[in-house]
Design brief:
The chain is an alpha/beta fold. Helix content is 41%, strand content 15%. It has two domains: 232 residues, Rossmann fold (3-Layer(aba) Sandwich); 96 residues, no CATH class. The strands form three sheets. Strands 1-2-5-7-6-8-9-12-13 form a nine-stranded mixed sheet, with helices on both faces. Strands 3-4 form a two-stranded antiparallel ribbon. Helix 7 links the parallel strand 8 and strand 9. The termini are far apart. The chain binds 2-acetamido-2-deoxy-beta-D-glucopyranose (NAG) (4 copies). One 2-acetamido-2-deoxy-beta-D-glucopyranose binds next to loops. This is Epoxide hydrolase N-terminal domain-containing protein. One of its GO terms (molecular function) is epoxide hydrolase activity.
Length: 429
């Protein structure tokens, strides 16, 4: 009932918007933005803690690189069972991030969708602030915006741009209810997020995102060039062609091309098992992960651990638990199966990355050594659209906004601060 698509349903039910709900959390979704605070049912929190306390450990055989370690399992279990304080976590998220719920009604191929959304929205006091849509990815959530949001809305001085920041949860993640029927992929998310920006009065805006955020922004910039002025992606992926691979085999690849292909192949061969499962049979794994909060946390931590720069940060048990709760509270199926929708829309093809829509608005890309787009050359990046600027960093990883906020902020300020090249002079009038 969450994702009604028939217009008559809309006329009947739009007023009775409280039909939209989330398991284990009191949330209402109406036709305009309403302030929202996280308050998860305390019986559910205690049930979760008990499941963790009773978790059965695998019989470890001392192999490396097959998933989180015995030590990780034990650390997270013990912390969760004995010390983790959801009350404090919830209160600190609510204090730090101003959240809202709403329903948007994009019309996609003559179907009116009703999409309930949870989002963060911080308005800048600066009069010249630019609306910025921040889109999170897998296995993250809206929490990825936490470490950059205040500097974006209140930059240190007037020589760098300020932003009104909107950070929605993709349906199925965080506190945006999962779609109740298949067919909601990056195209539909683009329509929904564009409708959200318009509902907030931001007819023109820029986008920043990594992972799924970096995928969705390419659909959205392609579909709504009148609204999306410019984008900065820290996950601009291009699948190497057969010719690129042959050139590497023949020793003709440049150092950047060789590094990029090797990183991609290592990821595909050694670290993408979760992805193949999620884009083919997401329900199969979901039975286990819905039932075992610790299993769910290990599922996402396996990837989280691989894609950060160990010289910069180490995940704490508290972060691992809190990030996993952004899937576990409403149930992980909707978030898990977004991969399937991304594959259905062509952006993943079996083990490879697929073809993404061409972006014609100005694009900047940022690359970090612990992410899989690292070193991709600019001429390859341009196969995906109008990529003008490429920032290559010497440290950091996949969750740039969270892990190396100062580096990403610098890229955001430089790119969108260049009014001519990025096109943000459109906001001057
Ligand atoms: C996870 O295990 C690895 C390898 O044993 C270790 O380096 C890391 O600190 C552990 N992290 C946690 C949160 O237990
Ligand atoms: C958390 O809050 C609930 C009620 O909101 C209370 O019953 C419980 O004791 C609190 N737990 C902790 C660890 O403070
Ligand atoms: C949408 O409706 C218009 C007008 O009725 C029609 O011309 C068009 O073919 C429809 N498009 C789709 C994708 O059904
Ligand atoms: C303004 O802040 C930016 C970002 O921190 C910094 O790079 C720049 O030097 C500052 N400019 C002035 C005039 O203080």
């Amino acid at each position: 009932m969450i994702l009604l698509h028939v217009i008559t349903f809309c006329t009947i039910f739009c007023a009775a918007a409280d039909i939209f709900s989330l398991p284990n959390i009191g949330a209402t979704f109406g036709n305009s933005p309403t302030p929202f605070e996280i308050h998860v049912d305390r019986d559910f929190i205690e049930d979760t803690r008990q499941r963790v306390a009773y978790s059965r450990a695998p019989v470890f055989i001392g192999a490396n690189g097959e998933g989180p370690s015995n030590e990780n399992f034990t650390n997270v279990r013990d912390y969760w069972a004995n010390e983790y304080d959801w009350n404090m976590t919830e209160a600190s998220i609510n204090k730090k991030l101003q959240q809202f719920t709403t329903i948007v009604e994009p019309v996609i191929e003559n179907d009116t969708y009703l999409v309930p959304l949870h989002f963060v929205h911080h308005h800048s006091p600066r009069e010249d602030a630019i609306p910025l849509l921040f889109i999170h990815g897998w296995p993250g959530s809206f929490l990825e915006v936490s470490n950059i949001i205040n500097s974006l809305t209140n930059p240190p001085n007037g020589s760098v741009p300020a932003f009104h920041v909107v950070a929605p949860s993709i349906p199925g993640f965080g506190f945006s209810p999962a779609p109740q029927r298949p067919g909601f992929g990056p195209t539909e998310a683009s329509y929904a997020f564009n409708a959200l920006m318009c509902q907030l009065g931001y007819k023109k805006y820029v986008i920043q995102g990594g992972d799924f955020g970096g995928v969705i922004l390419r659909f959205q910039a392609h579909l709504f060039p009148e609204n999306v002025v410019s984008v900065l992606s820290n996950f601009w992926i291009i699948q190497p062609t057969e010719n690129d691979i042959r050139r590497l085999a023949e020793g003709l690849a440049t150092p950047d091309e060789a590094t990029y292909i090797n990183i991609l192949e290592t990821y595909i061969n050694q670290a993408s098992g979760y992805r193949i499962m999620q884009q083919t049979q997401p329900l199969t794994a979901t039975f286990a992960l819905s039932d075992s909060p610790l299993g769910n946390a290990m599922w996402i931590y396996a990837l989280m651990a691989e894609v950060i720069d160990p010289a910069i940060m180490a995940w704490t048990p508290e972060e691992i638990i809190t990030w996993s709760m952004m899937y576990y509270i409403q149930g992980p199926y909707g978030g898990m199966r977004f991969y399937k929708e991304v594959a259905n829309e062509g952006a993943l093809e079996g083990l490879d990355f697929g073809t993404l829509p061409l972006v014609e608005v100005p694009v900047a890309i940022s690359q970090f050594p612990y992410d899989i787009t690292y070193c991709m050359p600019l001429d390859w990046a341009r196969r995906g659209g109008n990529v003008i600027k490429r920032n290559v960093h010497s440290h950091g990883g996949h969750f740039a906004a969270y892990e190396v906020p100062d580096l990403l902020l610098r890229d955001i300020w430089e790119w969108f601060g260049d009014k001519e090249v990025s096109g943000t002079k459109a906001f001057l009038s």
